[in-house]
Amino acid sequence: MSLAITLHILAATIWVGGMFFAWMILRPVAVDLLEPPQRLTLWYHAFQRFFPWVWAAVIVLLVTGLWMLFGVFGGMGGAGLHVHLMLVSGLAMMALFLHIWFAPYPRLGKAIAAENWSAGGKQLGQIRRLIGINLILGLATVAVASAGRYL
Looking at the Swiss-Prot or TrEMBL record, what is one Pfam family this protein matches (predicted)? Predict the structure, then answer.
């Protein structure tokens, strides 16, 4: 079980930490230093590198979460409220990521290829908002995961 917990925590750290870095550090610097064509291109290429890690994190979180849910708690009936909250928030985060992956992210790539910076900015804005929501959910999930069983 220690392997499952370790992999689960590492996957969550990579995903939530990446969103925190993007939102709190990279975004303000990119806005201050880059014009829209360079900024949009930077973000698209950053997402190209980050999103495979998110896919890996999603898979690891699902597998290890279910492994622990059924291996440790014997199913949902044996799990505490904090486990239920982690599952719900994790599934919501995954759904938001899937939406980003299949909708605004490809549209951002098409807008950049067409040098349609206005359309690209609109898609990046949507991605930014959804990542912001996911970041809030992710931080709340980390708090629940860390302290939930002690409440």
Answer: CopD
Could you give the 3-state DSSP secondary structure of residue 139?
Answer: helix
**Where are the chain's structural domains?**
2-150
Q: How far apart (Å, rounded) are the C-alpha atoms in residues 68 and 145?
A: 13
Cα torsion through 126, 131, 137, 142, rounded to 10: 180
Is the pLDDT confidence value at 18 over 90?
A: yes
Please give the full DSSP string across 59-97, using - where no structure is assigned. Answer: HHHHHHHHHHHHHHSSSGGGS-HHHHHHHHHHHHHHHHH
pLDDT digits (tens, 9 = 90+) for 58-103: 999 999 999 999 999 999 999 999 999 999 999 999 999 999 999 9
CA distance 16 to 21: 9
**Separation of alpha carbons 34 and 42, rounded Å:** 9
Say what the pTM is.
0.94
First to last CA, the chain: 23
